[in-house]
User: What shape does this take?
Amino acid sequence: MIARITYAFREMWASFRRNLTLTAAAILTSAIALLLVGTTLLIQRAFDNLLVQWRGDVEMIVFVRSDATPEQITLIGDTIKSAPTIIDVEKLQYLDKVQTYEEAKRIFAGDPVTLSLLTPENIPSQYKVVPLTDDPALVRSLSEQYRSLPGVEDVALAEDEFQVISTLSRFVRTVTLVMSLVL
Assistant: This one.
């Protein structure tokens, strides 16, 4: 039994020495293929990490300026709650600066440069809005209405974020497929 294993390894080693360039090419091709698989998995995980803030059917995030007064924050919340037939008021969530910073630490865990620029003092608080309607035009018109409120820094829509992420994801899949076919 040991003699057979020794014979197999001896012949394999002799074959490697005779075909050195072919051996190097096979090892290099395998390494590149593994690198492609690993990179694709890491990029997919990064895309999943970008979607953390949109969990729980959140379709819109209203970012409140970091220097907004408590009255402005209350006005924004009351304005959002004033449309109970369009907005799910029970799922409306207000994240203060500390909660927003904790969420940012999860989102930017792999980007220490961006994370170092954020502090609980300079990060905007936010309202996470879950609409009851599936009409994107209505949600977009609400976002424009909220954007004009005093104390609102920006309004982000899930639809826009998903479009960017799906475009990037398609690009990565295409590049990976082309590289795999080349190999």
User: Anything to note?
Assistant: Residues 32 and 38 are 10 Å apart (CA to CA). The chain is about 60% helix and 10% strand. Residues 20-50 form the longest helix (31 residues). Residues 54-162 form a domain with the Alpha-Beta Plaits fold (CATH 3.30.70.3040).
